[in-house]
Each structure stands twice: as structure tokens, then as C-alpha cells.
From TrEMBL:
Its cofactor is Zn(2+). Zn(2+) binds at C130, C133, C150, C153. Its main location: cytoplasm. It catalyses: N(6)-acetyl-L-lysyl-[protein] + NAD(+) + H2O = 2''-O-acetyl-ADP-D-ribose + nicotinamide + L-lysyl-[protein]. The keyword Magnesium does not apply. Nicotinamide binds at I106, D107. It comes from the Bacteria. Binds 1 zinc ion per subunit. This is NAD-dependent protein deacetylase. It is an enzyme of class 2 (transferase). It comes from Laribacter hongkongensis. Its EC number is 2.3.1.286.
Length: 248
């Protein structure tokens, strides 16, 4: 593993603008379960897969919100804290290089860790949006209501996340960020969810150095220059040692 992390450090030293695509595996060490994992995912265990669809929200808002809070309780408790992966990316962003994070996660932990450039591909559980009037000006009291309603028009609020059946509007921003970058890392993502899983293919087409850090192999491993199948926290600790960063 050390040789691969040495090569990862070499990519970091050579780049000027790093783009990092992060997935659920980056937040599991913060105590947030991977809800999409094929073997241990919370959706598979709870039988709530349909509850993450726009159609279910529209048909039965009360049942939707009950299931959604079962899957994502951290949205109302605020109990999750950034882990080693979030903190490392924030530390890298504090150097003289540009680090842009495109995250598939909806937990807001990159911002909480201090990363300044974050594109939330799938939105954030910390925000609410009215699907009728598009109002996003809602305070924290709405989050704890069993079925939150818009104070502007009275309609049922939706979590400001991309549900099944909705477009990923942040993809344009992700593509623009990749076009400006000169290195791509993927951390904690199985790369099963589109369209952001197209980024590695584009990076390879553009001959951009790339690396994947994920606990399990993915179907797209061959598109990366480097692949490391180890826990994120373990990789981050060794990466810090190589670069001479302060211990986490």
C-alpha cells in the first residue's frame, strides 16, 4: 500500500488544481451508513428504496418524510462530525493549490470540515425547498416538523436533495470543474450512480492523472492510474505522514 500512497502523493505534488469526487464511503467513518451499498446498505435493509423517489414524495408526503428521516436521521440531529477524509481534503485546500470537491453525499460534512469549494451533486439534507414556489428560506424549526410546510405558500417542503426521477442539475458545474482541473481523485464511491460516474472516463480521455481510493473494487477501476482498496482513514493517515502534515 505504501508504494501506491507514494504515487498518490506524487500526483498531489505535481498538480495545481485537484478535483475530488467523493461518495458515501467517505462519510461512513463519521457514523453515516452507506445507504446504497449492495450488501449492507440501509436502503436494502429497510425496504425504503421507493421512498427516495419523487413519485413517492408526491403521492404520500407523510410516508415519504417518515421513511426519509429513518434513512437520514443526521439531518435533524446534527450529530455527525467530519472524519479523517473530510479533514484531509480541507487541509489540502488550505495549501497554495486549488481543491474542488464534487460530492455525492448530502450530509454537508465537507463544508463543516472547512473545504471552501464544494459542489453538492445530490443536494444537502440540511436544506429544504418548496417544489411549488422554490422558496429555500426555511429555518431549523421546519426540519423537526413531522411534515414540514412552506411558510411562503403552504405546500409540503421537500429535502433539497436529488430524488429518484429528478435531474442532477449540478452536473454542469461538475463538468466545468473537471475541465479546469489537472488531476482527479475519487474517494469512497462505488461509481454506480450517474451521471457523475462519467467523470473518470472524461479524465482518462483528457489524459488527466487519476486515482481511486475505495474500500471495495469498482467496475471502473481500469479507468484510473492508481487504485487503492483500503479504509479511507488508514489511507489518509499514511498520506499525511508522507507529506509531513500534522497528525489528525
Amino acid at each position: 500500500m505504501s508504494d501506491v500512497i507514494d504515487e498518490l502523493a506524487a500526483q498531489w505534488r505535481a498538480c495545481r488544481h485537484l478535483l475530488v469526487l467523493t461518495g458515501a464511503g467517505l462519510s461512513t467513518e463519521s457514523g453515516i451508513p452507506d445507504v446504497r451499498s449492495a450488501t449492507t446498505g440501509q436502503i436494502r435493509q429497510s425496504g425504503c428504496a421507493d421512498a427516495l423517489s419523487l413519485r413517492f414524495f408526491q403521492q404520500d408526503p407523510a410516508a415519504f418524510w417518515s421513511a426519509f428521516r429513518t434513512l437520514f436521521p443526521f439531518g435533524t440531529t446534527g450529530s455527525a462530525s467530519p472524519d479523517a477524509g473530510h479533514r484531509l481534503l480541507a487541509q489540502l485546500a488550505a495549501t497554495d493549490k486549488t481543491v474542488t470537491v464534487v460530492t455525492q453525499n448530502i450530509d454537508g460534512l465537507h463544508q463543516r470540515a472547512g473545504s471552501p469549494h464544494v459542489i453538492e451533486a445530490h443536494g444537502s439534507v440540511e436544506r429544504l425547498v418548496c417544489p411549488a414556489c422554490l422558496c429555500r428560506d426555511h429555518d431549523a424549526t421546519c426540519q423537526v416538523q413531522p411534515v414540514p410546510h412552506c411558510h411562503c405558500c403552504g405546500e409540503v417542503l421537500k429535502p433539497d436533495v436529488v430524488l429518484h426521477g429528478e435531474p442532477v442539475e449540478a452536473m454542469d458545474a461538475a463538468l466545468a470543474a473537471l475541465a479546469e482541473a489537472d488531476c482527479l481523485w475519487v474517494m469512497g464511491s462505488s461509481l454506480e450512480a450517474g451521471p457523475v460516474n462519467q467523470l473518470p472516463a472524461l479524465a482518462r480521455h483528457w489524459r488527466m492523472p487519476s486515482a481511486l481510493v475505495n474500500l471495495q473494487p469498482t467496475a471502473l477501476d481500469s479507468r484510473f492510474d492508481l487504485c487503492l482498496h483500503r479504509p479511507i482513514g488508514e489511507v489518509c493517515a499514511k498520506f499525511r505522514q508522507i507529506l509531513g502534515f500534522d497528525s489528525d
